[in-house]
Hints:
alpha+beta, Maltose phosphorylase (chains A, B)
Amino acid sequence: MNQDYIIPNNWSIIEEGFNTDRVKSSESLFSIGNGAMGQRANFEEYYSGPTFQGSYIAGVYYPDKTKVGWWKKGYPEYFAKVLNAPNWIGINVQVNGENLDLFTCKVDNFKRELNMQEGWLSRTFTATLKNNVVVTVKTKRFLSLTLDEVGAINYTITPVNVDATITYSPYLDAGITNEDTNWDDKFWEITSINSKDNKAFIEAHTLKTEFNTCTFMESECFLNDKKTDITPKIEKLENKITYNYTADVDAKSSFTIHKFAGYTVDRNHPKDKLISAATKALEKATSTGFNALLESQKNAWATIWETSDITINGDVKAQQGIRFNIFQLNQTYLGTDAQLNIGPKGFTGEKYGGSTYWDTEAYCLPFYMATKDQNVGRNLLAYRYNHLEKAIENAEKLDFSNGAALYPMVTMNGEECHNEWEITFEEIHRNGAIAFAIYNYYRYTGDYSYIPEKGLEVLIGIARFWHQRATFSTKQNKYVILGVTGPNEYENNINNNWYTNYMAQWCINYTVETIANIKENYASDYDRIMSKVNLNSDEIKKWKDVADNMYFPFSEEHNVFLQQDGFLDKELTPASSLKNSQRPINQKWSWDRILRSPYIKQADTLQGFYLFEDNFTIEEIERHFDFYEPFTVHESSLSPCVHSILAAKLDRMDQAYSFYLRTSRLDLDDYNKEVEEGLHITSMAGTWMSIIEGFGGMRVRNNTLSFSPKIPKEWDGYSFKVNFRNHTIKVSVTQNKNTFELLKGEELTLMINGKSITINQNNLITA
Amino acid sequence: MNQDYIIPNNWSIIEEGFNTDRVKSSESLFSIGNGAMGQRANFEEYYSGPTFQGSYIAGVYYPDKTKVGWWKKGYPEYFAKVLNAPNWIGINVQVNGENLDLFTCKVDNFKRELNMQEGWLSRTFTATLKNNVVVTVKTKRFLSLTLDEVGAINYTITPVNVDATITYSPYLDAGITNEDTNWDDKFWEITSINSKDNKAFIEAHTLKTEFNTCTFMESECFLNDKKTDITPKIEKLENKITYNYTADVDAKSSFTIHKFAGYTVDRNHPKDKLISAATKALEKATSTGFNALLESQKNAWATIWETSDITINGDVKAQQGIRFNIFQLNQTYLGTDAQLNIGPKGFTGEKYGGSTYWDTEAYCLPFYMATKDQNVGRNLLAYRYNHLEKAIENAEKLDFSNGAALYPMVTMNGEECHNEWEITFEEIHRNGAIAFAIYNYYRYTGDYSYIPEKGLEVLIGIARFWHQRATFSTKQNKYVILGVTGPNEYENNINNNWYTNYMAQWCINYTVETIANIKENYASDYDRIMSKVNLNSDEIKKWKDVADNMYFPFSEEHNVFLQQDGFLDKELTPASSLKNSQRPINQKWSWDRILRSPYIKQADTLQGFYLFEDNFTIEEIERHFDFYEPFTVHESSLSPCVHSILAAKLDRMDQAYSFYLRTSRLDLDDYNKEVEEGLHITSMAGTWMSIIEGFGGMRVRNNTLSFSPKIPKEWDGYSFKVNFRNHTIKVSVTQNKNTFELLKGEELTLMINGKSITINQNNLITA
């Protein structure tokens, strides 16, 4: 429904015309965040129509108790719910006593813009109120990257046809709840509501998790851009505080409010100092002022774009799509806080709960490694190292022992915080992604030091898990892995998922190899680690036996590895036979029907071919692509990007391009008809990979960065930059030529289309 | 732990000596019920130790909202929680101002008895209170079968060593909660608390489900058995009302209270008439008086035993076990209310939720058919007929169409009220049990009229479901049934569960055959039904195609049907290799580990061989028994009885006897270490079947009742009665001879050990 209402533009997401049916979708699409907090693009003023209110604070969640019919041993106690936090953006507006409410007004010339280059959200419109007063409104809002506890709003109203008495009522509201709340569920408890001069504070803490927060605000008013001191009328309710600023405004004069507001949280401050920290934040913000704060916002975003921008010429929608992806990733996670991670919906919705999925390692790590300082990637790995003990405890809950580690499927604090057995107990391939990320980090950055320092212990815990998880099948005379859910979550509790078995084998082999290397080259680390984890060569031999004798289901008839033992028992009708009215099947079909169908949610076997492409011939990759893709419905946001990269590798540029469009504009065009619920943040890194690895053909092999650029016929050209081992390389591709430029760093040898070429800062290589 | 503390006795369950560790187990074992309500054997007086309080009203439940991480289409909205109802049994006792509390007193000569012959529960003990007053206490309590809204308590205290001031504080308490409650969950809302003369009332309704109830009480006091008028001091709290009766009691004198109390419910009365209905019930009870009410209780139980008793000579534990089973079944369900059904924990605990499982059809129906009026069996079938529309809706939620019916796995009102996909979506074999019950009812009672009247519509809905649920596998060139959970709930989402596939085939064949018969013999019913369900011969042909080409997984190597496609992929170590410390595995192992193991919770393939024994040779049955039983951990209460019956059939009487002991004393000896949570009511009917069908060899074939009695070597003899088509037959078996007696009805021809023998009321047949 809301497909195609976003106006193509190189740097902005723009909506023109007001349509109440699109409000919830736009609230997702125009979301803003600064890594520490974020919000859906809810209106500041009261809105009586359908809306999905959402303000989120990084790391603040609620443990929703697991309720199942028959409790089974090992079940996680709770599901971490992403919590809607107290609302500070609210500014109600009354004009001659009448509420400004876009749901009941006549709205003209409505325009909403999310400026990605500069990092702000704005609205302009003309409203005719029920009392026939016509006003024009301009708003601008941003969450500061420089003062990351603070957001700022500039709200200007101009009566057009009459003089009017206008009241701004900026407020803080802690009487919020979650969209997905249950009967009467309450998540926040308010400790205090205070006002001091122009500043207001609500202290509230989450129930159970006891996160303490202070939500704060301070406002300034302007008449015709001139600051005016209005003594506010203050209203305190049980869970809300409002300041009412009233002014008589002549027709055509402007009445403006600047509201500075935000959160201080006890993750960063002592819990009894939240108000004083808030006071300081407000003092900094007000003394800087809206305009100067906005300037530093623009500068901060310019710095981000400097290292991460991708340009696409000749295809505005593709350009808009990729920038939207890069912008949202940076809004969600900036890599500056090693305790945080990348939630699949970022700050744009409640769905999925928790913050950390395998998405981080499998999809996001490459993006952050190539567009930010190497330290950001290391932080993402260290996050898992810091959770190793919890991962071992998690495995123990499932009866594993001897230091076997099973990382949670979803987590906030290292504990499992998802609560469905078919996911948490069975979707164990996540362990593989976490091990692979260690390898991938070294492969990309060349920083081996992480492995003896932290990585090897994680690898050992994971290898132990795979060893224990496999069972020997007399029937197959091989080790099998029973009862898993692969990346394709449309199958549960299957046997011998090819991807999982392959990952298990790879993890063991890589760990064994790494142990040998550490033994040889980092003797003291080796001794420290071996004695810490109590590992000996007998145990390693047993691991190897499992890896060397792993079973992989294979179909002679189709000459392909089978996604799982029972795949061929299904009715193998291709996804193309599904009527449009039946899609997405996860919204149209019962779970029962989906499980029995051959339809694949996302790359599963192909995910393995993507990660381990060098272990297979191009013919093998092609054969598996042609076998599995037709059954794939791509209803996971993580699917199209992998298919785009593989299609590009197979020189199927039309297919690669269409998958690229799907991944890059998944939310903008709402392919999966769920954008109202929030954006698909982690898959946005997959979009980035589609260009860099898919079209650009970037790989790292033997410490050498290589490219083999291709270009969709629809584009005139594209360019991207990557940060590689203290070099910044810019790659520009057109239909006629490819150029390579070294923007930073010393001379570097690249492989370009299989040829070794050296670049330095003085020359632009065309190849 | 609490194994073996129950004293063997032919007619009573007796516990001697007070052990606080056993309180919760005894609360389950000594539970009482009258079909309309029931209670755990909680003490009347205050008890500060560990206890599990439970009072339950038939049909009163709470819909606990389903909470899952990722919602999937078709999920049931709620889980029906068995609700703890307001407590009316409470009588606090103070002696010289000191609470009588068995947890803090010294307790001597404690004896608790559940008299199954007469239907009452008693305790006697001597307590030395903290103030050194010694008292003897005698209590007796029952839930009246004749006035089924009323229970009565006789509580007598005698100070032994001193004169004492004693206060009885009978109360009603609606401030109760569930054991399995979640944070702050509230299920009841109190509407009014009233007292009028000696009567007290609390009106309360359940949240969401809006069941309105009135809990009521009235008490009378006696000094040395002489009625005494004491003006009570009345205390009203927010959710509790207490009457305090105080008397000065000489040493060795007795002070007695009779408390009459219970519930009136808006299932039986207009909701604004609950207090007046309660008043009437109390007037009846008090005018009858405790002793006369107890007399009629004894008579009512004598009538039940008259038709349902089983005697066992020479084995008191076996005798006690079988009577305990028959007693508890009758306490749970009496067949008088077609809206009610047989909850798996009856009125003895909260676990499992809901009231109706496939247990009713698969296990309970034969018991009720043979021990009660034929109408009771018909009521049980009609319960499902009345839910047919809901079953069709339930199937529609899972994308089935055209009148396909999927009965819920668990229900209170026809809707699915369990909430785990692997159960509700996949444990579809329940549909088979419901169809089989129709066949079984006719087979046993000879009452075909139920089928044209109601049964055929149910069969057609079920046949349609199976037809749609099967898919054609090109690989097998057969119809397969993917993604199911069989009776063995230790495997989920498996393919081609043999039992399920067999049931599906049988259901279709039986339905097709029944349609033909109705067409020929009940033409007008046929026309009515066919036009109602819009069925034609083309559709029937398609059903038949599925039934005729159903796939059954088979192992050539083992020469057995496989429980499911992947069974042989498991590590096939027998259950005998499990250490005792690892059992029951459902308490010791994670769900993950259980799913991957070969261990079978309960008869699965063997359940099919039990139901359809005539379709297999004895060698086939034996081979499958020997293959599957070694993997079976019997952690479902429904397992040992089926194994006992099959073992008896295979002439393995030692094994049959040990399974019999396990099923009949499952709760008394707490095999599965969970009796604290409540009793396993529905499996108790399986115990009955173990004797009647297993040892007695009772079958009905071609309208003829047959027996082939066997007897465990441990027993001197046993006898049972069955009600068969208006005949009551008594079968007595000893080590030397078997006798058959017709107690009621006209001459009847039986098959005894394969020989046709006619009995009538005048002769006792020895055969």
